[in-house]
Write a structure and sequence with these properties.
The complex is a heterodimer.
Chain A (H helix, E strand, L loop, with lengths): L3 E3 L4 E4 L4 E7 L6 E7 L6 E5 L5 E3 L2 E6 L4 E6 L8 E8 L10 E3 L3 E6 L1
Parallel strand pairs in A: 2-11
Antiparallel strand pairs in A: 1-3, 3-8, 4-5, 4-9, 6-7, 7-8, 9-10, 9-11
Chain B lengths: L4 E3 L2 E4 L5 E6 L6 E7 L6 E7 L2 E5 L6 E5 L5 E5 L8 E8 L8 E2 L3 E5 L1
Parallel strand pairs in B: 2-11
Antiparallel strand pairs in B: 1-3, 3-8, 4-5, 4-9, 5-6, 7-8, 9-10, 9-11
The chains are: A mainly beta, B mainly beta.
């Protein structure tokens, strides 16, 4: 079983649509969770951290279910500029309090059409 | 405030050659992590450096080695290049004693012919 699994998509949605991405992780010792966004041939950029209580940043809402080892990202009112690959990322925890290495899913590709 | 900078941006090598990639962390960061991203895949962790020592290592062979300098910058060295080493190599920096997210550089795109 892969450490972090995501539906690769692509998700093709019209502008204004609501779209949800899901992700599961295998290591129950995982400590931190993130969604990164990656545009074509660019570096990953942090979209948001994910907390057990759930968190929202504008049109983006992230949820974490530790019992089910499941993470989600909801994008409301999709914009053309939201087109990208969304990477689910888990941190197992590292040495001496450091963040440690990040475990990435393969990413889910989103394409928002006019 | 300079972010993470990597050089070169692109590189073409042939099988069997050796390559060195460079990374300067974001100002205020002391930890550098290296990742390999093959086409269509998520980044995979290679190793992490802090205080000039390798602190963690992913599942990569000994052909992959690194170094961190007193100014926190880092190098990734790959020996005996294989076709399968063709990928985007990403450097990420962070502060060791925090849990703040890592910041990524633009990457070096390495092509092996």
């Amino acid at each position: 079983r892969k450490e972090v699994e995501q539906d690769p998509g692509p998700f093709n949605v019209p502008e204004g649509a609501t779209v949800a991405f899901n992700c599961t992780y295998s290591n129950s010792a995982s400590q931190s969770f993130f969604w990164y966004r990656q545009d074509c041939r660019k570096e990953p950029k942090l979209l948001m951290s994910v907390y057990s209580s759930g968190n929202e940043d504008g049109r983006f809402t992230a949820q974490l279910n530790r019992a089910s080892q499941y993470i989600s990202l909801l994008i409301r009112d999709s914009k053309l500029s939201d087109s990208a690959t969304y990477l689910c990322v888990v941190n197992i925890g590292g040495y001496g309090g450091s963040q440690g290495n990040l475990i990435f899913g393969k990413g889910t590709k989103l394409s928002v059409k006019p | 405030d300079a972010g993470v900078t990597q050089s070169p941006t692109h590189l073409i090598k042939t099988r069997g050659q050796q390559v060195t990639l460079r990374c300067s962390p974001k100002s205020g960061h002391d930890t550098v992590s290296w990742y390999q991203q093959a086409l269509g895949q998520g980044p995979q962790f290679i190793f992490q450096y802090y205080e000039e020592e390798e602190r963690q290592r992913g599942n990569f062979p000994d052909r992959f080695s690194g170094h961190q300098f007193p100014n926190y910058s880092s190098e990734l060295n790959v020996n005996a290049l294989l076709l399968g080493d063709s990928a985007l190599y990403l450097c990420a920096s962070s502060s060791y004693m925090t849990t703040q997210p890592q910041h990524f550089g633009d990457g070096t795109r390495l092509s092996i012919l």
